[in-house]
Amino acid sequence: MRWPCCYWDEEGIWFYFELDVDGRVIRQVELQEPELTPLAAASLDEWQRAQGAGRLEYEAKYGLTAELPFQEWEGHDPRWLSAEEFEVVWTAARQQIELRSS
Q1: Cα–Cα dist 4/77, whole Å
Q2: pLDDT band of 22, cuts 50, 70, 90
Q3: Distance between CA atoms of 76 and 52, rounded to whole angstroms?
Q4: Three-class DSSP category at 4
Q5: How far is CA 78 from CA 3, 4, 90, 98, in A?
Q6: If pLDDT is split at 50, 70 and 90, which confidence band does 23 have?
């Protein structure tokens, strides 16, 4: 597992990824500047389970993970995080999304 973080300057969005051994995104967080507002905190596994159960609201609430393997993203200059650093961002984003949708 690897945890890169990238900034997309045009939109002011920070992307945080959890990648499997093949570089596929299995969890993803998107934070919009300047407030670092969570736009997405999606898990590929959760999304697949929700789709299988016919619960289509997952995507509207949490967003989606990127479909392309991380290596195929162009123009990114990742900063590499530890598992703990990613978990802090993941947990905070999920909590904010939960509060927003309550």
Answers
A1: 9
A2: confident
A3: 33
A4: strand
A5: 9, 6, 17, 28
A6: confident
Q: Where are the beta strands (DSSP E) in 1-102?
A: 4-8, 13-19, 25-32, 37-43, 79-80
> Partners of 19 in the beta sheet?
2, 25
Q: Is 56 in contact with 63 (CB distance < 8 Å)?
A: no
Q: Check pLDDT > 70 for residue 3.
A: yes
| C-alpha dihedral sign at 44, 55, 87, 72 | positive
* Total-model pTM: 0.89
CA angle 90–96–101, rounded 5-degree value? 125
Distance CA 90, CA 57 (A): 19
Three-state SS at 81: coil
In Å, what is the CA distance from 88 to each residue of 42, 54, 72, 82? 15, 30, 26, 10
